[in-house]
Structures are given as C-alpha cells and as structure tokens.
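Help! Submission page says 'invalid entity' but I think these are all valid:
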Amino acid sequence: MEFERDIIEVQTQIDKLLDLADRKGIDVTAEVKSLTAKLNELKAQTYKNLRPIEQVQVARHPKRPYTLDYIERVFTDWIELHGDRAFRDDEAIVGGWARLRGTSVMVIGHQKGRNMKDNLRRNFGMAHPEGYRKSLRLMKQAEKFGRPVITLLDTPGAYPGIGAEERGQAEAIARNLREMASLRTPLISLVIGEGGSGGALALGVTDRILMLEHSVYSVISPEGCAAILWRSAEHREKAATALRLTSKDLMELEICDEVIDEPLGGAHTDWDTTAERVGDALERHLHELSALSPEALLEGRWAKYAAIGVWYEV
Amino acid sequence: MAWFRKDKKPLKAQDRRDLPSDVFDKCPGCSEILYRERLAQNLNVCPACDHHLKIAAEAYLSILADSGTFEEIDAHLRAADPLGFEDLKAYPDRIAAAEAKGKTEAAISGTGKLDGIDIVLTVMDFAYIGGSMGSVVGEKIARAGRVALEREIPFLIVSASGGARMQEGMLSLMQMAKTSTVLARLHEASIPFISILTNPTTGGVTASHSMLGDVNIAEPDALIGFAGPRVIEETIKQELPQGFQRSQFLLEHGMVDCIVDRRELKKTVALVLRHQFAGWTE
C-alpha cells in the first residue's frame, strides 16, 4: 500500500539496527526507542487520516484476518457445517457451531482465499446462491435450538455469473433478507473487511451492525460506481469519497451501532489484539440481546430497519 | 462508360424519414409502424407481435385499479441529498431534472380496488433516475406495506428499476432490508403479496421485494436479474446466451410463477387473490 511506505521504511530501519546489535553486540536501545516512538507516531498519523479510497485498500488488505482467522482466535469448539442441501457447498461462505466465551452460537461468514489456489475454492469470497441458502439453513438451525447467530461480513459482492443468475442470486439474497427479519433469535453482524453491497447485506439484517474501524460497507464498489456514474473505473477515488462508506460515515448515517477500534497500524498488523477486541464487543452485545424475549427482539429489529433513511416532506 | 451518370447523394441524417414522434411509434419487436393512440388503447402492446413496449408507471394504476378507486398515499415524500453526492452531475440536479418531467419520486403508492378487492399498490417508475430505490422509495414501500398489514388487505408492487440508488449510498442498500422486513411481517400475518416484474428489474430491487412475492408475475420479455448483463459479460469474458435474464429464462429456472400479458394482468391478479384471500367460494 502506497500510504504504508514510510511506516515500512522506519520498521526496516529498526529491524536493521536490532540485527546489527545482535551480531556486533552494540547497544542500540536508545536509537530503537526513539525510532519506535517515531514509528508509532507515524502509524497513528497515517491511520487516523486515511482517505476513503485508502480505507478501502486497508479493508481489502491481503494480510487482513479473514473469517476463519477470527473463528480460530475468538471462538472455541468450532465445527464447520457444509452445504445448502439443494445444490452444493459454496466455500465462499463458511458456517458452523462455535462457542463464544462459553456460549454456543452459529457463526457464518464470507471467506476470502489467502492465495490464488485458495481463491479458486473460495471464489474471492463472492458467493453463489447456494452460499446464501446454506447460510439461511444454518440460521434456521440456530433458531431451532434458540442459539444466537453471529455473521462476519467480508465480500466484494455476490458473484455475477451465468450459473448464479440461473439458480436465482436475487431470490437467494431476497429470501435471506426476509427470513432474517423474522428470525426469533439474536443476530449480530460484524463487517471485518469489505461489506460489498447485496452480497454482504444477505448476512446483514441483524439486531446489531458492528464494524471494524478500517472496514467499509457500501451499496456498490467504488470501481463499479465510477464505471457507471463517471463512465470510467479510474475515478474510483472520487466514488469512494462520494459513497460515504467508512465506519465513521456509517456511524454518522446511523446505520452502524458500534465501531471496534483496530490496533495501531490496522488489523493486519496484529491479528490477536484485533480478535481480542472483537470477542469483547461480540460478548457485550450478545449479553444485551440475550436479555430480550424473541418478541422484543423482533419489535426492535423491525423498528431499527423502519427508521433507516433520510427524506423530507412537502 | 455509362452514357449518363446519376449523382449519388449521400444520405444525410435529415433525409431519414423520421416519424412524427408524437403520433407514431415503431415496434422494437417487429418494426411495425404503430399509430400511438391505437397502441395506447392496447396498453402499449404491439397488436402485430404482442411485444410489450414501455408504458408510463401511472398507466399501471388504471390497468390494475378499478376505475375511480385509486387514491394516492405518501405523495408528500421527497428525496433529500443526505450524502451531498456529486458525480458528473450533482444529485440535487438529477432530482430536479426528474421532477421537471412531472415526477416526484421513483414510486407511486396508493389504495384502491382490484376487481372489487381492496388492495394497496406501489408502482415503481423507471423514468425517475432509473427507478432506483433510495430512502423515499424504500419508505413508500414500507408505509404501503404497513397499510396492508393494518387493514389486512393484499399488497402489490409493480417493479421497474435498475436497483439501489447509488447517490444515497448505504442508506439505499438498507432500503432492501427495510422493504424485506415489512414483507416478512406480511408473510407472518398471512397477507398476500404479489410481485409484478416489468422491464427492466435488476440489482438490489430484484434482490429484495421483487423476488419475494407469494406469486411472482413477469411481463413478457422483461429483463430481470441480479447483476446487469454488462457486468456479467465483463466478469466472465464471454458473450451471454440468447434470451439470458429474460422472462422466459426466469420461468424456466423457476424464479417466476408465470408470464402474463399486460392486457391479462388485472384478471390474473384477481384470480390469484380470490384463491389466496378474497373468499373460499364464488
């Protein structure tokens, strides 16, 4: 990432100094201390002032933790459940039972691949209809056993392809929206990276909407928006700014309920600390929602979505 | 060499025999020249080949509602510009341009009777920023749905839309959740919801209320899909098969219940509603 250049440079200096100290036995504590201070200052400044398009780049950072990385760190007793019982198992979405600090929950999330081979399996986290149908099957299972559902959102969008259209991409997403609206169990969604349009929302009609600090959530990708409204994808920076897609924007638009701060320098620099904070936030929201009856949950959910929107009356 | 030569005049644009656009239309299906008044009487369906030409959103009010029964609701809602959105054109300018056409938003809602059955009806309007769903469209559908819920009468939506309205960003995406939530409540209350899909219905509108009908009815040869054909072509780098994402394709793949001629729409909806709701016997 372009904006990371200075940070990486200072980091390299520190590494070199430490290496030198190691080999020659020179005391570099003072230098390292001052450089580390400089590094932290630089990180804080850089990440506090990211432009929207840079936020998008951080949200898509290839070293950012993905759903299974959170499942490994935040949850225990994980068992993955596969398949939509109709067509196939879509590995762009993973789901299954897990325990959040003692409580059994259904965890479902988009799963990107870390390399090309993985991405062939995971389709870059872009689900087909069967992925959404698997998710719905698992959510219904959670409802059956009175367990909460936690969804982790991280997708460029629902896959646009022939097979996806043939098998009803629109219907699969629409059905999830409607079914989630009346699921009689607590639902929490957390955007961990890219919240890409309808493909993200298909796991996102929840009682609480949480976002990691550097995640984004958007009606369309900046590239797609630029291609349509500016007639060229090169204008993606302008589109990213216009769309108001950062976690801060979504708090201001009263869509996001809470932003979870990332460690200095972004989630990709410290997976464990990020996971710790995610676990704390999820536990807190789950505790609050668990106190509500299913009726109160539904009333609250309906009211939440009924209230979103800005218009005026004449 | 020819003993006479005729000067060949190249065709100039103004030499093309333009039809007076306010009197005639050419059918895109069979190229038949159609007298507009006659076409309008036929609900903009070509008498020669049954091709369904574009029709104004307002026309569906009289197509579906019994004469004199439609009463508009929520006409006072107007689009705001919550993001201060500006692309090549500022969003307020787009709104002003659409309003100059006499439109107030991309959806009209109201109550009325359909063959004597009380209904709530929302018609989406492609002529207003591509029928896109922003806060007002979402709110109008939600309010209409709540009227159906309170009065326990069927709800109909006629869709024509390019999807969520980009100029309202995430507020637009969340309208999908808003409309689907209201439909969930109708579903639980066993109140009929009929979705009528017209050309074109794509994106976030298809992926929310338009696909959620107890019965999904498509007009003939309408483009209906999630991703637009161009996006798919660019993604898969292949040409799309003939008829892809057209009504017949959706019927074959099980996504709509039936394809119904515009002239038969009201009769068909009435037939369905009487089975679902209006009474056990005739």
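Support: the input was valid. A stray whitespace character was the problem, and the output above is from the cleaned input. Chain B has nine helices and ten strands.
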